[in-house]
Amino acid sequence: MVKETLYYDVLGVKPNCTQDELKKAYRKLALKYHPDKNPAEGEKFKQISQAYEVLSNPDKRRIYDQGGEQAIKEGSSGGGGFSAPMDLFDMFFGSGMGGRRRDNRGKNTIHQLGVSLEELYNGATRKLSVQKSTICEKCEGRGGRKGAVERCPSCRGSGMSVRIQQLVPGMVQHIQTTCQECMGEGERINPKDRCKTCNAKKVVRERKILEVHIDKGMEDGQKITFSGEGDQEPGIEPGDIIVVLDEREHEVFKRSRHDLIMRMELSLSEALCGFQKTISTLDNRTLVITNLPGEVIKNGAVKCILNEGMPQYRNPFEKGKLIVQFLVQFPARIDPAVIGKLESLLPPRQECMIPDNAEEVVLQDLDPEQEARRQRQHREAYEEDEEHFHPRGACSARRTRTCSKLLSPTLFFKIFLLLGTVSACLWLKWTPLQVMDVKKKCVWQTGVTVLAFFFFFSSLSVFFITVSCIIFKYTALLLLSWHFSSLFIWTLRRPGSVDYVALLAPT
């Protein structure tokens, strides 16, 4: 059960989404709210990056699902305990740092950068504009003038307040919450002494241009880290800015690790009589490929050119293969005047012996996708008709499902639970029985006993049928049945019970 869905809502995905769906949603939002396109949406972009950083990490995502954003900030999924023994000490006596305990390092910020296949092949340098928090230079990160900052008297500088809640007599629980006086900062500043530049936030937002160096052979999804360039906060080390490369599709080439794949169309004459074609590479070179006459290229044939693929990362002089897949284009129709010439050039046709009773049919065009869709619709309609016109088969299927449900262990537990409830009614001396007269009491006990025996013998009959098939698997249920039967016998024969035989016998 997910405790909080804020990060999922920021990315516009469901809590049970996959990593691929997360990545797709992040790419879409990152491109939409990137500061280069929307400078005013810097805070929104930061929220998107923070949500993706947490949810893309399986361990952080598990902690967030269990404890929410507060658990991520505290570094644990407890949500009400203390992440370290020193937390309790700092809560009462202060941490000496003018605020609650924080991580020594700030959070990383992730930025998506779209790159072309040419840039990954040749290498490139891109400029990336980012919005980041920096320590206010006017107040030097204090939030106000020097000496105006005082420790919060309510939480004694810890930023957290604790209240004690009694669960049961003799057991209490300490619940840790954010101090409402200082809003978790551990310190207070008089409004007139606050810094006008940062409004006592200690940090200001500014724009910075980063130069992203894309090396030859880098891949889609590869990360480039700018250490210490993340958001700044007083008293902690800034995090990193991580740039994730997003490879755009190329109109000619498709990358497969170190190889490049392309398709080349050939006419029928080129496939049969040879050809000479050119290929423009990603570094603006021109390659010439030749197929000699007499070397026939089949439709779908695959050939490769060594050392013309993608350069290897950090070893750019080693390259993969350039794989070429040939697609032979056949003419839609042939002029009857040239058919005779083709027959004289091509191998002779194979003669076919046609019997006298043979039937002549017509070949028609067929779309495989349309035919598969038609067969699927026909199969669904056939299954509906089968159930409508052959109710015996449908009833048989329903009986099979019903038997499966009757033989399920879950039903046995329900029956035995009901059986135990009825037997408990007989065994306990209920208060209503004590105020009834003898006649009403006998009638009530007789009805309950008959009902109990009905459920008892019905459950035993179904139970023994099942045990006869899978006796070794349900031995425990057999012992449970004997336990309830013993309980019934003891209940009916205990002293003080009504003599039903004498009661029902004719006088």
UniProtKB/TrEMBL annotation:
Question: Boundaries of each J domain copy?
Answer: 6-68
Q: Which InterPro entries match?
A: DnaJ, DnaJ_C, DnaJ_domain, DnaJ_domain_CS, DNJA1/2-like, HSP40/DnaJ_pept-bd, HSP_DnaJ_Cys-rich_dom, HSP_DnaJ_Cys-rich_dom_sf
From the record, give the transmembrane residue ranges: 411-430, 442-465, 471-490
Q: Which UniProt keywords apply?
A: Acetylation, Cytoplasm, Endoplasmic reticulum, Lipoprotein, Membrane, Metal-binding, Methylation, Microsome, Mitochondrion, Nucleus, Phosphoprotein, Repeat, Transmembrane, Transmembrane helix, Zinc, Zinc-finger
**Which PROSITE patterns has this protein been placed in?**
DNAJ_1, DNAJ_2, ZF_CR
- State its location(s): Cytoplasm, Perinuclear region; Membrane; Microsome; Mitochondrion
Provide GO CC annotations from the record.
Answer: membrane; mitochondrion; nucleus; perinuclear region of cytoplasm
**What membrane topology is given?**
Lipid-anchor
Please provide an example of a Pfam family that matches this protein in its UniProt record: DnaJ_C
Its assembly, as annotated, is: Identified in a complex with HSPA1B and BAX. Interacts with RNF207.
> What PANTHER family has UniProt attached to this entry?
DNAJ-LIKE-2, ISOFORM A-RELATED
State the name under which the record lists this protein. DnaJ homolog subfamily A member 1
Taxonomic source organism = Ixodes scapularis
